[in-house]
Amino acid sequence: MDVREREIRDEQRHLDTVYRRLTEKIHEAEFLMADAADRVQVGTPGALAERDAQVFQAGLHLSRLNNEFEDFLFGRIDLLPGKDGVRGPDGAYTSVEPADDAIGEEDGAPVAEIAETLHIGRLGVLDAEYVPLVIDWRAPAAAPFYRATPVAPGRVVRRRVIRSRGRRVLGVEDDLLRPELRALLAGSELPVVGDGALMAALGRARGRRMSDIVASIQAEQDEVIRAPVTAVTEVTGGPGTGKTAVALHRAAYLLYQNRRRYAGGILVVSPTPLLVSYTEGVLPSLGEEGQVAIRALGSLIEGAEADSYDEPAVARIKGSAAMARVLARAARGAIDAPGAPGRLRVVAFGRRVELDGEELAAVRQQALGGTAPVNLLRPRARRLLLDALWRKSGAPERYQDPGFAAEAREAFNDDIADEEAFTDFLAAWWPEVTPLQVLVAMADEQRLARWARRILRPREVRQLARSLRRVTPAGAGLSAHDVALLDELRVLLGTPTRPAAPREVDVLDQLTGLAELTTYAERSAPNGRASATEADGGERLDYAHVIVDEAQDLTPMQWRMVGRRGGQATWTIVGDPAQSSWPDPAEAAAERDRALGRRMRRRFELTVNYRNPAEIARVADGVLSRAMPGAVPPRAVRETGIAPRFATVESAGALRAAARSEASRLLAEVPGTVGVVVAMRRRAEVAGWLADLPEAGERLMVLGSLEAKGLEYDATLVLAPGEIADESPAGLRVLYVALTRATQRLTVLATAGDTAVPAG
Ligand SMILES: Nc1ncnc2c1ncn2[C@@H]1O[C@H](COP(=O)(O)OP(=O)(O)OP(=O)(O)O)[C@@H](O)[C@H]1O
What we know:
Elements: H1 3-39, H2 45-65, E1 73-79, E2 103-106, E3 109-113, E4 116-121, E5 125-126, E6 132-136, H3 143-147, E7 156-165, E8 168-176, E9 182-185, E10 188-189, H4 197-203, H5 219-225, E11 232-237, H6 243-257, H7 259-262, E12 266-270, H8 273-279, H9 282-285, E13 292-296, H10 312-319, H11 322-333, E14 344-348, E15 351-355, H12 357-368, H13 378-392, H14 395-398, H15 402-417, H16 420-429, H17 435-441, H18 445-451, H19 458-468, H20 480-493, H21 507-512, H22 520-524, E16 545-548, H23 556-564, E17 570-575, H24 585-596, E18 601-606, E19 608-609, H25 614-627, E20 635-636, E21 645-649, H26 655-669, E22 674-678, H27 683-690, E23 700-704, E24 713-719, H28 721-726, H29 731-739, E25 742-751
Parallel strand pairs: 3-9, 4-6, 11-17, 11-18, 12-13, 12-16, 16-17, 19-20, 21-25, 22-23, 22-24, 24-25
Antiparallel strand pairs: 1-4, 1-7, 2-3, 5-6, 7-8, 9-10, 14-15
The structure holds adenosine-5'-triphosphate.
Residues 198, 201-202, 211, 213, 216-218, 221, 237, 239-245, 576, 579, 610-611, 710, 712, 740 line the site of adenosine-5'-triphosphate.
Binding site for ATP: 237-244
Protein name: Helicase
Organism: Streptomyces millisiae
């Protein structure tokens, strides 16, 4: 039996012990749940409180333990004794530095005894004597597993990554952090197996879902994941540096750190639905199911679902902060709908009183002078209408005595206010307007021109109105940018108060009692309410932590929308300016600053590209230097020895055949996924070209350039790069995104007309 086999066998023994213990815990939890159910019958206050506590604990355990983990146990560190000899609650030494006498000398060479071995896994497991069998990866004691480097090893002598599937250990890979040291474990020398656990992880084929990286988080990433929440954590880093992965692991870490504070209250904002579905599996694999909401920008508000795409020119108009002013006018203007009644006739004190169109317009103008949201101004409009009718009736002149006048006025109000002619009129003349109705109203170019006067240019008005014409009254045809406009309108219009519907509760939350816990916002709001706007149409606005992925792409209007969801929150923001498809970073930065307010900021930079092999990164870097002269690309850690392929077709007509053959070639070359990235307007066409390729099936995806954000494939075919670059003002940066999606192979297929073909 060689060293590797022996080490695998030893880890297998440990894993068996862990699973035996887990099974015991599952039985224990099941018993507790059943026992608690029995106690419902008893019903004394003491028994009930105890029951709740038990159900909470047991439910939490069960739901997590029942998760069948791919690799429950994935790491191990062998450590020198700690400096102060103090052990924490999990039984591990708390000190990061070794004791002064940890390293001795033998024949002039340093030698040390391993004082402690910790296994790291997805959840913490203690044995019956409370000795840790597995330390949760998020626990402080696990940090050295990620942080130790040969330059600053701390107490770590050997770091081991354990690869397992289900209950079977498949392999181990070791790193020696103090290679100069002769380390002894229970009297014999510490064996070392292989190297390059990280490289092995990076070389694996990619599926349709992102995997977690718990087993190989790198030191600079770990710092971000565990950063204190006292400041906004701002992370920049080039493509493939793990920003998305790190952001998701941070969500899991925060839940571990303070479950009560963050339960159900973490929002992850993602640019596209494609990236949402790509990343959705990561948190469940970390044992955190259902606690974190991952939402695309186009479905951030309840009930809206973007299904359309805006041309860059239109996106720019819709995204710009100036839209807030246009919407403010539109919200107030839309109340004056074309079909509104032009005259009000009532009978008061037996006489007919009437307001004509002009008089009504004056009342409306006055009512709109109030500062409240339009839908909350109806009581004011009603009052002003009654005033106008009272004046019109000639009654004021008839009463000299103020006391009589007041009494008569009251009777007058009573007389009219319940009259159907009046109530029907009010409902039609000051209807409750929905955000969608205003957006649809803005498709009328003439009305829009009025609302956008001196804010947008006539040409912009035309473009905007035309694009909004595709939005239906039922909400189909919305783009992600429209959704931010709807959110702005929601605030401008306001929602009249109605009896609150009970909030939907997660079944798991009910089981565990988490649903009964208060959120952070609830506790920090002085009046005990979550937030003033929370009741608005059931919209959730009180997140305790907001994570923004691909933050460089949020438009000013989108920052406003996201900002509303994190008024009380702590924040993590990750992005890469070099991949921005928004043409005016300064304007977006201003709205981002507004969303974050006076919170402190702490910046981190990730510098290593874990996705692209160096050969592919070099091509992308060529484009980066043109897109953003002076920008420093991340360092690629891997070489494959395979150069990217460049192909050109002479005529546009030949593109179809060439695309098919290049895609087939890539499908044959890699075991996993192939992404074909094309200009947005070509998506459907190219998808048609490749639909019947043998082998394609689940493995091949055709993407518009703006949809490729954040995704990755084993191989990428970038089609007509010139078209992608010319598509928008930020086109070269969009092309940079396209070129950085592949983990193994890249083919660039250009037409003779392409002007911005990258290197080669
Ligand atoms: N420490 C790590 N160990 C193993 N794999 C890693 C590590 N860090 C990142 N990766 C992998 O590198 C790839 C890129 O990660 P991720 O998508 O998070 O990068 P990103 O910075 O968000 O990229 P982009 O800016 O292009 O969206 C993923 O496949 C991820 O799993």
